[in-house]
Amino acid sequence: VQLVESGGGLAQPGGSLRLSCAASGFTFSRYAMGWFRQTPGKEREFVAAISDGVGRSSFADSVKGRFSISRDNAKNTLYLQMNSLKPEDTALYYCAKGSQRYYSTVTSEYSAWGQGTQVTVSS
Of 6, 43, 51, 85, whose Cβ has the fewest other Cβ atoms within 10 Å? Predict the structure, then answer.
């Protein structure tokens, strides 16, 4: 299993970024996928998740209405569209492979992780 995130960088408050996660080594369409984030000294926290082909999703309260999650099963790619970014969104963002078809918000229910992509929101 390999998960490779991209799309992170520096954004101004109120700006947007789109993260991508290229997946390989497993049947992408059969598993839920998630995005998590972590800042130094804090535990990794749930951001968003999406179930397999049906596309049901869940979001952390802190990002609801600003972030959206999607997947392209034909391209084995997961996306996180981040709008109206805030300085508190600054973190290392991780893509994760679920252990089943339906999404989970629990870190321990994800079986594989990418290396992370840094998102910094600052003026």
Answer: 43
Answer positive or negative: Cα dihedral of 45, 107, 119, 11.
negative
| Local structure of 33: helix, strand or coil | strand
- What is the spatial distance between Cα 67 and Cα 45, in angstroms, rounded to a whole number? 15
C-alpha closest to that of 118 among 77, 84, 89: 89
In this structure, the strands spanning 77-82 and 117-121 are unpaired
Q: Give me the amino acid identity at 36.
A: F
Listed in sequence order, the residues at least 6 apart from 71 whose beta carbon sits closer than 8 Å to its beta carbon are 28, 33, 50, 55, 77, 78, 79
What pLDDT sits at residue 81?
98
Q: Which residues of the chain have pLDDT under 50?
A: none
Report how far apart the first and last C-alpha atoms of the chain are (Å, whole number).
Answer: 37
Neighbours of 95 (CB within 10 A): 28
pLDDT (0 to 100) of residue 54: 65
Radius of gyration for the chain, computed over Cα atoms and rounded to the nearest angstrom? 13
